[in-house]
Design goal:
- The chain has 283 residues and is α/β, with parallel strands linked by helices.
- It has eleven helices and eight strands.
- The chain has two domains: 174 residues, Rossmann fold (3-Layer(aba) Sandwich), CATH 3.40.50; 86 residues, Orthogonal Bundle (N-(1-d-carboxylethyl)-l-norvaline Dehydrogenase, domain 2), CATH 1.10.1040.50.
- Strands 3-2-1-4-5-6-7-8 form an eight-stranded mixed beta sheet.
- It is globular, with a radius of gyration of 19 Å.
- Bound molecules: nicotinamide-adenine-dinucleotide (NAD).
- Nicotinamide-adenine-dinucleotide binds next to helix 1, helix 4 and helix 10.
Length: 283
């Protein structure tokens, strides 16, 4: 088992999370290939990253050299390829992730590690059908990846302890605070966060308060962000999929029931920041 120190990384999924993971890995010195199933998406993610890094340079938070060095390490690719470590950040769907892992296993060397950034899907279930289930581990980053320190390293029933430890240490070298956890529905953060979002959505459904007021109240109570703006940041499509997954995994326990308010937002395509509109509108 390698230490993953100088690993060549393939990030699959160039959306909100994949782009952030690619940035953090590149800033830590790795060569990163970035792939997305949507043609042109990886290229577009790199251009966005480039503007964002330019912004940091302008603000004096990063040197122009460091920004350029990180950027050249990221290569958008139009097909899956080999790597020492794959970090998967595609849509929150069990069957689609499983199909990807089957495809990857045909391309990867036997000692390569596959890390999934799933927010909620059982790592044990995701590994089912893999030739080497021991190489799959959860590496759950938080949004926005460059700013959020926490990484949950999630072990499924078949995950090798060496693989979990290697990913744990890698996250530490990237400046993250890694924690080990077993694969249970929602892991730690999303298990606790589901009822928090659910109560917010109930308040909205009951017309008790508008999103602006709820956010202001929770900020005043000491939270960095209110729950409505946070759900807009996460993306309602992803958040709704996570709720469904945790609800099913808890044998449809009423506490985790998905909300009609969120269903409406998803049906309308109001995914939050990434689509320009959620609870709030974004330019
Ligand atoms: P996103 O919608 O922003 O991006 C997902 C990307 O994956 C899209 O660009 C899509 O084209 C691509 N994709 C879909 N299927 C693919 C496939 N088969 N192969 C390659 N690319 C494919 O979503 P996101 O918010 O970046 O979430 C990605 C993953 O990260 C999900 O599993 C989600 O649960 C998890 N996650 C999200 C957050 C968050 O706050 N949004 C936080 C932690 C973890």
């Amino acid at each position: 088992m390698t230490s993953l120190n100088d690993s060549r990384i393939l990030v699959v999924g160039a959306g909100l999370m994949g782009a952030g993971i690619a940035q953090v890995a590149a800033q830590a010195g790795h060569q990163v290939a970035l792939f997305d199933a949507r043609a042109g998406a990886a290229e577009a993610a790199k251009s966005k990253l480039s503007s964002m890094l330019d912004g940091l340079v302008t603000k004096g938070k990063l040197t122009a050299d460091a920004a350029q060095t990180a950027l050249v390490r990221i290569t958008p690719v139009e097909a899956l390829g080999s790597a020492d470590l794959v970090i998967e950040a595609i849509v929150e769907n069990l069957d689609i992730k499983r199909a990807l892992f089957a495809e990857l296993e045909a391309l990867l060397p036997p000692d390569a590690v596959i890390a999934t950034n799933t927010s909620s899907i059982s790592v044990t279930a995701l590994a089912r059908g893999m030739k080497q289930p021991e190489r799959l581990v959860g590496m759950h980053f938080f949004n926005p990846v460059p700013l959020m320190k926490l990484v949950e390293v999630v072990s499924g029933l078949g995950t090798s302890p060496e693989v979990a430890q290697a990913v744990f240490e890698l996250a530490g070298r990237w400046g993250k605070t890694a924690v080990h956890t077993r694969s249970t529905p929602g892991f730690i953060v999303n298990r606790i966060a589901r009822p928090y979002y659910a109560e917010t959505l109930m308040l909205l459904q009951d017309r008790a308060a508008a999103p602006e007021l709820i956010d202001a109240v929770l900020r005043a109570a000491g939270f960095r962000m209110g729950p409505c703006e946070l759900m807009d940041l996460i993306g309602h499509d992803t958040n709704f999929a996570v709720t469904h997954s945790v609800f099913a995994a808890n044998f449809y326990d009423r506490r985790f029931t998905p909300s009609l308010v969120q269903q409406e937002l998803v049906d309308a395509g109001f995914f939050g920041r990434k689509s320009g509109r959620g609870f709030y509108r974004y330019p």
